[in-house]
């Protein structure tokens, strides 16, 4: 039987050493790394591709963890969360067959930890050949510049249709705005998975930790047809271009003057977040009659007030329903304050956004101060 490799990631040095000693004492298991933060965990998982990562609940609760899980999903790495609860619980995603996320109480006995580790590794990796593993690792890397690399480049995304202008030169082109937090990575993959290569220009704010924005943008760009990039400075809106504000210390907003442009604005947190969904939504008030906006799964209420103001200004607005939300906080706040014109399951939100706004104004809407 082959040896199963384990990484232990906890914020407590004492717990880290205790668990590592326990695992190293088990037959067919070996700890290959111990870490105390997510960035080092990311580096070790990428380099060593363990069978299991034992991770403490404080680290697994950080927004960056969701991005990390999504990036490593194709490698079939199992995540065992050591919770602070008195009994084992599972997240919504872990109830699905073949899931990668499980949990046990952090104070579990050695026998319980051993039993869970053996259960998770009993059947090995799911059809992951060495070639597939290498391809998965390579595909997570930033795409090399074809002018400086002799390696084969990725398949190029299809250019927008010539029937639709690349840049917004007319005043009636629809705009899509999206906000998400906890559970947002999978939600965005579902929503954007329905977008065509020449979709309306789209701006997204996703709560995540510093340093993970580029990885998230790269993940979405690889999985979806439109071009997806992290916000950086000022840009004219284009069809087939999705801009995401995530993990960078700047608000992603729409400029007020015509033509509509996106802009990364340095500032303080709004509604407890930087970037903030409320800031993105409120920046679109002048263009509300051209906007379709959605507030997806997430903790707290960032975006609920902005979505309400967009609806009052003439935008078409949506909130994700409770059944498909990982955390029904932000959507609930939007529903309770009357911000959503419709409440939809996650697989219906993409098509609804693509239908466009209720009307198309030829000029920016005048916003009264």
UniProtKB/TrEMBL annotation:
EC number from the UniProt entry: 3.1.1.61
In the record, what terms sit under GO molecular function?
phosphorelay response regulator activity; protein-glutamate methylesterase activity
The Gene Ontology CC terms held by the record are:
cytoplasm
Protein name per Swiss-Prot or TrEMBL: protein-glutamate methylesterase
The EC category is hydrolase
What this protein catalyses is:
[protein]-L-glutamate 5-O-methyl ester + H2O = L-glutamyl-[protein] + methanol + H(+)
Outline the extent of the CheB-type methylesterase domain: 169-360
Record keywords, A-Z: Chemotaxis, Hydrolase
Q: What is an annotated GO biological process for this record, any one?
A: chemotaxis
Mind telling me which PANTHER family this protein's record contains? PROTEIN-GLUTAMATE METHYLESTERASE/PROTEIN-GLUTAMINE GLUTAMINASE, PROTEIN-GLUTAMATE METHYLESTERASE_PROTEIN-GLUTAMINE GLUTAMINASE
Stretches the record annotates as Disordered: 123-165
